[in-house]
Backbone:
């Protein structure tokens, strides 16, 4: 293409009324970077995430314990959410924009260095997102078990700040997991026709209703993704600080 | 009417060119295309610009306004109060003249797509809730702004490897039609190059028809491609069941 | 200009115009196989003015209102056309429209659905039943897109952005067309055994218009110059509801679907004035009546701040509006700053459609020039004095197909080579380049603007002898000035140069509109004369046919074809077939359910 004959490549003024294009990727870099550094610290330097009836999402389920390992115990679990999120369609947008500048922003010229390297499309390994979804669901089941346990104190049922944090975390993770694009495909997206099995009936089929619900949630997949990332972070930090004795859990009743 | 807008419009052709400034008196409710027409009628009759309906129905007047791909007929000038309005042709396609780009590549791609192939004759029985999904894709006005903004085409010029978002939407429209019987999955994976899309969603951001190009067309198609080509367990099941079915049909049918 | 080196293409069937009618004709001509088919469009493929048709395609499928039939559609169309339509055209049309709509579904158009899963149909002005098969408020776009993808899957050679400046003759038969590529201005010649005109209307002659730049009537003007007969030129439709404010979007169409879905018109005194003008059909009266009613309200001082009427659909609720009229919702929100789910908005009549055009045979679309066929808005015969909403989309399907068949047959039976006069080509090439020799000549944009002013003032909704005569004088003066139109710059995508030929065609057709309007001394349908306010029975017996002659335009009075008794009986019924009291359905009530 006659790229050279095109108008100059300099970036004109930002579109009015909106944030500059670099704000979103910059936020992604800071948030992701922060979370990864925090995760490394958590995974590499801690071997337990349990404080009484609270379990940090980084350490649940306790796979390491099942096999009798006692070092880097979080590592046996965190890879699951990590690969689930890494192959997530929403996160792909964020990291391709923020970290590999493919592209950094819409209609923003990619860096000059890209011109010498050929672009081959996305990583094919991401197509396995559907399998990571199943793994994520297994982990999610344990997290809900943890939530139940977080409400059971030595003296019976109770509610602490920690129980609420774990509950909210589990809700957000559930929202994130079940608004997944791959799940949406599995649940009915691959069908072309929902009503074809029930000709002439205006009654919506169950599979359609399910797919429709998931589709509605899917619109906010990005919101679920960020919210649940921060909730995991907060939940783990809360438990960590309790273990370290920096703060004390507040029992509400 | 004292208020004026300053338009800086690219003037030139494949031999190069530069932006030129024009003054246009402000009229309430005026869109960028009105201003360009004003320039055409008063200052530069040979200013090249493509337009038809001036109502965001035809998708002819695509351009880059202050760097963003937009329809000139749908962009109000009062969005740019106090700014110089830079108008340039779409960058992903070769320039013809001034604001006119040569979009013929898109029509070449359109020809390659396996067309709608109904399995039975009209009238079809389809429920509204069943066709809602494909009707979204039918909103496309073929303005090619998504093609313009797509970095695969824009920055990597991979026009030989990827059909572009517009034609992913078109293929989704056919592929997800309740009565369609053709199989476009191999074409999507190979010639169509759906894997070139890395879901950065700029196409969705610029779509003047607000089609959820990435979430509702490209990703579901990627999932269908994955169903066929990147899912070892499904592949295994398919291979096992196929052996039982014997070699009755060679044409792959849809799942 | 060397004719040997000129780009030349030969086709059996050549179609001018890549809108709905042209595409449908090309698809039909090509699907027979064996013949070469060419399709020429002035714009890119899929951008034609058909995309602006919003409401739907009228066809008596009867999915929603079962009693609907071709007879009712016939009854409605004749009534709305004030009986100067060609009855046979209307009969063919009403009978074939349902099959054409279903055909589109077969080709991939996805219409809105009824609860039974069939094609949904909506109420529209002047239709006795809910009849318009639709897709939200973008039916024309869907139709065009469907035909476009159908066409590219067939063996049709498509030429985009080519302007045709002249039709070519081989003695008394059509032989092809001459024009240039807009992109770089180089000439191209087409030889053709049969040619289908599907070049649309000329609504761009008016200032406030819903038409795009393309609607300059090139086909009609070119056919006229060759001796083609144009009929009912005075009949111009003003759509009652165009946007009024802000001025940047004045004239932009607000689909009749808004009224079809339950929108109500009020004047500045909050009175639902349509109850006075047409108590039976109210807002869903025919377009001529509604447009005139709004015009009268404004004239009598009951207009809105910017000279229109209020249209209100907010009572239907936001969800309903966003589902049924998403395009309108967005259009008024982004361009007019009005949320139609919350408040009424101003509308006023805007030029919309030209009922007149090239006189075409009812069954074959043949014109009086052998080998030349006409379909769509450029043709005349179906709509009479006023077009029903939704009939144009069905029109282009029915007659696009018929023109395609007839052209195919004609080309197949035509013997011998097509011969084109070299001298004619050379003269035309010279003429087309002439504006470049006058860089300081008249600005075509200025002429166009003055033409639009004159037409809107003198031959708008309201007409009288004095107005028309003054208008004609202005147009003739403009025609003189137009001979000196010039172009600056080069041949590469030069709109100033392109405009020269558009303006020439529009000036010619404008003259015919006025001459026709002077001739029709009565009020009928879209033609309203204050000096002859009544519809006259005597006048209803005639169509006015324009023909070129050495001393200018010659108008012939041609009798309107007489219906056979069976059709006469349908038209003479007091109520539409299927609407007899025993099974009378309250249409408005039904529409809002």
Residues:
């Amino acid at each position: 293409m006659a790229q050279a004959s095109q108008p100059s490549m300099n970036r004109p003024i930002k579109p009015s009324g909106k944030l500059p294009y670099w704000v979103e990727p910059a936020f992604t870099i800071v948030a992701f970077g922060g979370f990864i550094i925090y995760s490394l610290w958590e995974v590499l330097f801690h071997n337990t995430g349990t404080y009484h009836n609270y379990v940090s999402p980084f350490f649940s389920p306790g796979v390491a314990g099942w096999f009798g390992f006692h070092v880097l115990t979080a590592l046996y679990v965190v890879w699951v959410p990590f690969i689930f999120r890494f192959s997530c369609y929403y996160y792909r947008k964020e990291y391709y924009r923020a970290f590999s500048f493919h592209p950094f922003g819409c209609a923003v010229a990619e860096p000059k260095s890209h011109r010498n390297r050929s672009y081959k499309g996305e990583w094919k390994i991401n197509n396995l997102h559907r399998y990571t979804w199943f793994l994520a669901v297994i982990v999610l089941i344990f997290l809900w078990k943890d939530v139940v346990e977080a409400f059971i104190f030595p003296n019976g049922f109770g509610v602490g700040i920690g129980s609420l944090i774990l509950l909210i975390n589990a809700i957000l993770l559930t929202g994130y997991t079940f608004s997944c694009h791959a799940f949406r495909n599995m649940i009915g997206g691959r069908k072309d026709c929902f009503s074809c099995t029930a000709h002439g009936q205006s009654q919506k089929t169950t599979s359609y209703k399910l797919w429709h619900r998931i589709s509605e949630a899917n619109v906010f997949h990005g919101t679920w993704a960020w919210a649940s990332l921060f909730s995991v972070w907060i939940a783990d930090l809360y438990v960590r600080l309790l273990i370290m004795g920096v703060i004390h859990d507040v029992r509400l009743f | 009417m004292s208020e004026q807008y300053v338009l800086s419009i690219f003037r030139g052709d494949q031999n190069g060119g530069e932006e030129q400034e024009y003054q246009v008196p402000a009229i309430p409710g005026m869109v960028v295309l009105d201003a360009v027409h004003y320039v055409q009628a008063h200052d530069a009759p040979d200013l090249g610009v493509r337009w038809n309906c001036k109502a965001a129905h035809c998708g002819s007047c695509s351009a880059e306004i202050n760097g963003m791909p937009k329809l000139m007929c749908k962009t109000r000038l009062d969005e740019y109060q106090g700014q110089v309005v830079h108008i340039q042709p779409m960058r992903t396609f070769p320039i013809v003249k001034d604001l006119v780009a040569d979009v013929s590549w898109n029509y070449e791609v359109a020809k390659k797509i396996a067309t709608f192939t109904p399995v039975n004759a009209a009238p079809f029985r389809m429920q509204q809730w069943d066709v809602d999904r494909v009707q979204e894709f039918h909103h496309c006005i073929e303005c090619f702004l998504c093609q313009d903004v797509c970095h695969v085409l824009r920055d990597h010029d991979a026009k030989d490897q990827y059909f572009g978002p517009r034609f992913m939407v078109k293929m989704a429209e056919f592929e997800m039609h309740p009565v369609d019987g053709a199989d476009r999955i191999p074409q999507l994976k190979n010639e169509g190059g759906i894997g070139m899309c890395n879901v950065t969603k700029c196409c969705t951001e610029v779509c003047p028809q607000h089609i959820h190009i990435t979430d509702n067309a490209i990703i579901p198609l990627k999932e269908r491609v994955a169903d066929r080509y990147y899912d070892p367990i499904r592949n295994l099941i398919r291979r096992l069941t196929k052996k039982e079915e014997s070699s009755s049909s060679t044409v792959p049918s849809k799942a | 200009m060397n004719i040997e080196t000129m780009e030349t293409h030969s086709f059996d069937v050549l179609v001018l115009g890549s809108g709905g009618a042209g595409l449908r004709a090309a698809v039909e001509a090509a699907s027979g196989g064996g013949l070469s088919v060419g399709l020429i469009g002035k714009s890119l493929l899929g951008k034609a003015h058909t995309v602006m048709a919003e409401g739907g395609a009228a066809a008596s499928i009867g999915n929603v209102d079962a009693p609907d039939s071709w007879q009712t559609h016939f009854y409605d169309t004749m009534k709305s056309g004030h009986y100067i339509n060609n009855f046979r055209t209307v009969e063919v049309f009403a009978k074939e429209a349902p099959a054409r709509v279903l055909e589109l579904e077969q080709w991939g158009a996805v219409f809105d659905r009824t609860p039974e899963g069939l094609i949904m149909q909506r109420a529209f002005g002047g239709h006795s039943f809910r009849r318009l098969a639709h897709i939200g408020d973008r039916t024309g776009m869907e139709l065009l897109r469907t035909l476009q993808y159908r066409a590219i899957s067939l063996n049709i050679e498509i030429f985009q952005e080519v302007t045709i400046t002249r039709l070519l003759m081989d003695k008394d038969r059509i032989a092809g067309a001459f024009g240039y590529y807009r992109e770089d201005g180089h000439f191209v010649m087409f030889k053709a055994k049969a040619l289908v005109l599907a070049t649309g209307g000329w609504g761009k002659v008016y200032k406030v218009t819903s038409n795009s730049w393309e609607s300059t009537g090139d086909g009609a003007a070119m056919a006229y110059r060759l001796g083609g007969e144009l009929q009912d030129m005075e009949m111009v439709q003003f759509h009652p509801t165009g946007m009024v404010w802000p001025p940047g979007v004045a004239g932009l169409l607000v689909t009749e679907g808004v009224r079809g879905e339950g929108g109500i018109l009020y004047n500045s005194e909050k009175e639902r004035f349509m109850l006075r003008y047409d108590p039976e059909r109210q807002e869903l009266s025919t377009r001529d009546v509604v447009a005139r009613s709004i015009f009268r309200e404004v004239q009598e001082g009951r207009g809105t701040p910017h000279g229109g009427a209020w249209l209100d659909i907010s009572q239907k609720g936001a969800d309903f509006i966003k589902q049924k009229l998403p395009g309108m919702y967005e259009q008024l929100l982004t361009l007019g700053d009005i949320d139609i789910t919350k408040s009424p908005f101003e509308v006023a009549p805007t030029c919309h459609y030209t009922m007149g055009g090239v006189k075409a045979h009812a069954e074959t679309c043949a014109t009086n020039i052998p080998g030349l066929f006409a379909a769509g808005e450029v043709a005349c015969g179906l709509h009479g004095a006023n077009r029903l909403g939704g009939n144009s989309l069905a029109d282009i399907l029915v007659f696009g197909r018929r023109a395609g068949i007839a052209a195919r047959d004609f080309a197949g039976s035509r013997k011998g080579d097509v011969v084109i006069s070299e001298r004619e080509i050379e003269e035309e090439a010279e003429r087309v380049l002439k504006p470049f020799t006058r860089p300081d000549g008249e600005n075509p944009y200025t002429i166009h603007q003055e033409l639009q002013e004159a037409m809107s003032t003198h031959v708008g909704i309201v007409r009288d002898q004095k107005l028309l005569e003054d208008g004609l004088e202005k147009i003739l003066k403009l025609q003189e000035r137009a001979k000196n139109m010039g172009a600056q710059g080069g041949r590469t995508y030069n709109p100033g140069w392109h405009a020269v030929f558009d303006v020439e065609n529009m000036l010619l057709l404008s003259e015919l509109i006025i001459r026709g309007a002077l001739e029709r001394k009565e009020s009928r349908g879209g033609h309203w004369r204050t000096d002859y306010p009544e519809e006259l029975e005597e006048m209803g017996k005639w169509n006015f046919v324009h023909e070129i002659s050495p001393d200018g335009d010659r108008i012939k009075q041609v009798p309107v074809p007489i219906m056979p008794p069976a059709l006469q009986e349908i038209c003479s019924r007091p109520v539409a077939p299927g609407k007899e009291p025993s099974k009378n359905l309250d249409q408005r009530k039904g529409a809002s359910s």
